[in-house]
Amino acid sequence: MATTGRETGRETALVTGASRGIGRATALALAEVGYDVAFTARTAHEGEGTVAARTSREVGVSHQVAGSLATTAAEIEARGVRALPLRMDLTDAAAPARVAGQLLETWGAPHVLVSNAVHHVPHARFLELDLGALRESLDANLVHQVALVQALLPAMVDAGGGVIANMCSGSATLDPPAPPGEGGWGLAYAAAKAAFGRIAGAVNAEFREAGIRAFNLEPGFVVTESGRARGGTEEIEARAVAGSSIDASGRVIAWLAASDPDDAEVNALLGTVIAAPRLAGRLAGRLAGRLA
């Protein structure tokens, strides 16, 4: 029988892609303010994590990277709440329904869903872009993301509502400053992120009155463990792109989730792309008090 948030006195959250990087930081931010946190990742144990090369010109290259379901689970539980690690690979079409089923069976509907996971297809220059790789990126980073929301949304509505936070990217609206490999990004990533950014608006149009609020967040340029392992971040930083705090998005999501459904200040952010580092900075003093 599932142990729900109501039975523990705590609300629950699901954060995808949380073995490392922004997802891990977000899972820990939610745990810090009292959420039981379910989370997904591909890597089960430390030492098993690898990430593909940054660009398609690095054929057959992969890099080892720290982070795992086991490590994040221990860090969540150290904050006095429950952790529910769930293995999910975005390239697996059956994974979203399986993960949703496991969560609903174990804890019931989450109050917060953070869609942070992304499948990295090595960035390719336009004429070198393999159309199979483009389809792979769209399937993993759009179609399978939609599938997860579809699998959880009815239960969230039945439970009275909740918050969906989607981790967007500036690449969805900005032209790359340079070619892939020289500080820019490829079309497969940008196109998938642009389409992904439309999920929140579709959800709000149909489910706002049912208590669901869906937000888009832009985390800024964050040098994660994966990014550092792949290399190439130095070229981006050299173009005067300032790095953002890895936990800014998590702090903002916790603030959004804790807000009253009728909070006009928060609801004014619906239909926008929230610049998480800027908002986190502006609310720095208020965040601590409001989430305490």
What does this structure look like?
The protein has 292 residues and is α/β, with parallel strands linked by helices. Helices cover 43% and strands 14% of the residues. It is built from 13 helices and 9 strands. It has a 7-stranded parallel beta sheet, with helices on both faces. It has a two-stranded antiparallel ribbon with strand order 3-4. α2 (21-32) links the parallel β1 and β2 (36-41). α2 (21-32) crosses α10 (248-258), α4 (95-106) packs parallel to α5 (131-158) and α10 (248-258) packs across α12. It is globular, with a radius of gyration of 18 Å. The model has no long low-confidence stretch (mean pLDDT 89).
- Main sheet: strand order: 5-2-1-6-7-8-9
| Helix-strand topology string | HEHEEEHEHEHEHHEHHHHEHH
The stretches of 5 or more residues where confidence is low (pLDDT under 50) are none
Which percent range fits the helix content?
Answer: 40-55%
The overall average pLDDT, rounded, is: 89
The number of helices is 13
Distance between the termini: 31 Å
Total number of β-strand segments? Answer: 9
What would you call the quaternary organization? single chain
Sheet with the most strands, sense and barrel status: 7 strands, parallel
Structural class: alpha/beta
Radius of gyration: 18 Å
Shape: globular
Portion in strands: 5-15%
